[in-house]
Amino acid sequence: MDTPHTTAATIAEIISSVPNFVVSQMSRAYALANTPDQQQAILDAMPDFGVTPVQALTLYVTMQTALASIGLAGNLPAADLTIFQPQPDGSVLYVAPPSPEPEPTPDLEQ
Description:
Blueprint: H1 4-33, H2 39-45, H3 53-69, E1 84-86, E2 92-94
Antiparallel strand pairs: 1-2
């Protein structure tokens, strides 16, 4: 039979593992959502699996913000809402970030 002390230790171990698990799963989802040239198709297919893109984005933003506020987000990036733009119908529009401008080549006077 467990004592209160061993039960408390078990609870502490479970609770302390939750943020790492959540960050791991969110990092995986972030990487998958940013699959090059497939972002909009992935977002459009999400309702087929019972979640709207806005629900997924809202959950990601909420969880990342909460984890960051207690210092447990690690390297989990915040969602960029200029790239993933929520729409009133529950969809999310992916807007590719602009390509960086090429560096100007210096004019070499001869």
